[in-house]
Amino acid sequence: MNYRRFVLYQGTIGMASSMIFPFYILVLKNTGNNYAQFGWAYGLFALTSALTYPVIGRLADQIGDKVLLLVYSWAMALLLLFFPLVEEVWQVYLLQIMMGVLGAVQKNSEKRCLLVMLIKERPGKKLDNIMSGLLLERQLQ
Amino acid sequence: MKKIFVLISYLVIFALSVTAYQAKLSSPIAEDKGHLLPVALKSIASGTTDQELQQLVKTAGKNDDKLSIAGMQHSQGGQTLYPDAIMVDMKPYNKILSFNPGQKTITVQSGATWDDIQKYINPYHLALKVTQSQNIFTVGGSLSVNVHGRDIRHHALIETVQSFRLLIAEGSILQVSRQENQELFTSVIGGYGLFGIILDVTLELTDDKLYQYETKEVNYREYDSYFTKEVLANDQVKMHLARISVAPESFLTDMYLTNYLLAPDQTRLEDYDSLKRDSIIALPKFFLGLARINDSGKNTFWNIQRTYTMKTDGKLISRNNSMRSDSTFMDYDHASKTETLQEYFVPVNEFADYIDDLRSMLEKEKDFNLLNITVRYVEKNEEAVMSYAKEDMFALVMLINQGTSKKAVKETEAVIQKMIDLTLAHQGSYYLPYYSYPSSL
To answer: What integer is the mean pLDDT of B401-429?
Structure first.
């Protein structure tokens, strides 16, 4: 994967998710009947993400980012088709868990992808800056 | 090849998702403003012409479909909802058909709101005779529940209706008035949409006048004699509205009231007759929000309402403006709670004893969240078959904050059934529209 493609990919994913986000909140609100359920839905997402992150990190080295990013894109494309059909709150929880796993796949692969590219392009240079930038991004999310 | 296969499979799943979603949409879940009765409907339909509505009724007849009729859906008792029925949304059927300023009559399609009519007739210095205190409701819906308002000289809405046309189940249209199909006239008005679709209605109007507020605080014991002597006997008083406290400090004892007197100088009407818009609602919304939370919130809300109302003494207002009170500040959006209304009628001379009994009953119900009670007057009117004003009555409208869970509904039901029993014991009656809490009709 070259740099140009990577930016295009990240841009598309970023745009898609920020376009979906407001409506996604509405879906959650309409399905749940109190705000605690809303919180749990997010909690499940974050928790599964955190738990699967190290596993996927190890996998990424074996499988490669391209495959993982493909898995992420297609799985998300499929998953989102189920959101309009959700009626019960447990279905939301289930989807949130799957999204949590996929979220970890995406975050892991994008970082690995970027690092690999950078190491190829300018080995040994400014990597510390990039790393702290990535860590900061992680903190902010 | 592989790519095309993936793409095609995705498109197939996409199409399946869309169809499944549309199937879900085609049996929409609807509820009325009480939010206690979500019902899965077959569909929601509407029409803007007689022919469209007629066609709708005929097709439903052929397919053996049930129809329910809906306006603003504030009647809260599920009258506008029926499982697997087609709900006819009357709101788009809202044209003003004819207006005769000389004879003071107007003919409107039943989906028109009071606001639509007020905007239309205000430039001619005419006003409605009877509406609710708020103007957001449709004419058809208001007719179906035979509303009353704060006017003490005109009473139930039925008095002001000259005639209407009714689309009946067979698909034909009947002219209904006190002369033609008289039986339908008295049963359709206050008939909850059970007899057919009210198409257009001819209403009597009256002159827009300038009123002057007169405000006063009274104790509930003095209220009925004050009302009879100072309000009813004084023909300058045209409208009247009172509130009785639900704040713990003065629970069901303190009252304040507003009389709308005919202003001495009617030439000043021009200065006051532009229709007011919704004022800034942040403050009343905030204080009502406090009242929902706890007792001290209720005390604050009551004190502020009272102080504010007492300050309006002497101010001037046009009749049209007095019949378009704010209601948006009462809008309430909560995931597991809702606000419902109840209305009880008690004969004028029973009022004080009734309030005493109500107080001793409600003081035991600590969890019953009663937010507001307004008091209006209705004169005996038994023209409608289902009449609430069996004699001259005070009408108490209660605003109740309650949960939507089964348990919460049961708890509210227990209290409300006690209140209804109490009302009946005082020769009173209750208004049917609201949620089916009463154990019998």
So the answer is: 94
